[in-house]
Design brief:
It is built from 14 helices and three strands. By secondary structure, the protein is mainly alpha-helical.
């Protein structure tokens, strides 16, 4: 039945001159079609940019010429091997396992689309072996260091993005996209609704990374106070500068109200760390610090996941596995200490009983 239906479809297409010989379609043609139909204008600008680089810089130059129906999982594996950084050969031009995993997801989605369009029967990327991902441990600041850092940058425009990421776990683009109207001072809530990404024009707010990134976060009193203080500073600057003040409504801004590209936060952040003798970490590690500090306080992982705006708890568990592992070890040490107190106590009880028996005899 299905085969006959398909044959009739094909015969109809041949008659209308709309038949495309699927044997001739190359992977390159498929990628170009998938990108324009499923990616461009449909996803967050940073995601689109990432896909574009993967497709045009890596996949098409290496295997784009292969006819779609002849593409095998072996071809795909060989392509990954070529891309992979082989440490023995010290080929520094290679890519990390993490980058290849992103390219793989990209290619796999494209081939799923081809299966759906009946251009191929099966997605060959599903059977391809991937290089194993190197575990990435980010450097983090404990709560005390975060507070020392905030003291060092008090009243500097950089205090805001540092506090938002270090005390609420916002991503850099979410810091940059936060507007005063997103903050509910009475209920002590931050509404994360939009982001501003690098190079996406000055005041353009765009979609967040995923649907789950849209979230309401309860603020700490410390963060609330910092925000109120900066609002007062900004209002004072408005009065002083008058017409020269650029009122954009964004929380993170320069003394004259104008806003900078989010990538500037990272540059300024490393300068601040150097100046005040803190160890060097990336700006994004402030978000990791926030999560790690919550986990260390014993906050349930699903709560941490929601506050970070992850699309699933699995992602949170994967990123913070080493923190949970360390805490397990600490928990066992504490339990051992508790057990040994109990054992010592038992020995004391036994000793007293033995003494009493000797006295009785």
């Amino acid at each position: 039945g299905d085969a006959q239906k398909y044959l009739n479809e094909v015969l109809g297409q041949i008659e209308n001159n709309s038949y495309i010989d699927t044997k001739k379609i190359t992977l390159r043609e498929l990628l170009v079609e998938w990108f324009s139909k499923c990616v461009e204008g449909k996803l967050a600008p940073n995601t689109v940019r990432g896909y574009k680089v993967n497709i045009y810089k890596h996949i098409i130059p290496h295997i784009g010429w292969i006819p779609l129906q002849q593409l095998t999982s072996r071809d795909i594996e060989n392509f990954y091997t070529e891309l992979y950084r082989d440490d023995d050969n010290d080929n520094s031009a290679g890519l990390s396992a993490t980058s290849i995993i992103y390219i793989h997801r990209n290619l796999s989605k494209t081939l799923d689309y081809a299966v759906k369009k009946r251009l191929i029967l099966r997605n060959p990327a599903r059977d391809a072996e991937l290089p194993s991902k190197e575990k990435f441990y980010s450097d983090v600041f404990d709560q005390q260091t975060i507070m020392q850092l905030l003291t060092a940058v008090k009243n500097d425009p950089m205090e805001l993005p540092i506090a938002l990421s270090g005390l609420s776990g916002l991503r850099r683009g979410e810091d940059a996209g936060l507007m005063w109207r997103d903050i509910d001072f009475d209920r002590c809530i931050l509404n994360v609704r939009k982001q501003r990404t690098s190079g996406a024009g000055n005041t353009n707010r765009s979609k967040l990374k995923t649907l789950d990134s849209y979230r309401c976060i309860r603020m700490t009193k410390t963060l609330l106070e910092i925000l109120k203080r900066h609002q007062e500073i900004q209002n004072r600057n408005k009065e002083l500068l008058g017409d020269d003040y650029v009122d954009t409504g964004f929380v993170c801004c320069e003394p004259d109200g104008s806003i900078v590209d989010p990538s500037t936060y990272s540059k300024r952040f490393s300068q601040i760390l150097k100046k005040h003798n803190f160890k060097a970490i990336r700006f994004h590690d402030l978000r990791h610090s926030f999560a790690t500090n919550l986990i260390r306080l014993g906050v349930p992982i699903n709560t941490v996941s929601k506050m970070l705006g992850h699309s699933s708890v699995t992602i949170t568990l994967d990123i913070y596995a080493h923190v949970l592992e360390e805490m397990q070890q600490e928990a066992v040490i504490k339990m051992d200490e508790d057990i040994s107190k109990y054992i010592d106590n038992q020995d004391d009880i036994i000793d007293i009983e033995t003494d009493n028996k000797i006295k009785e005899n």
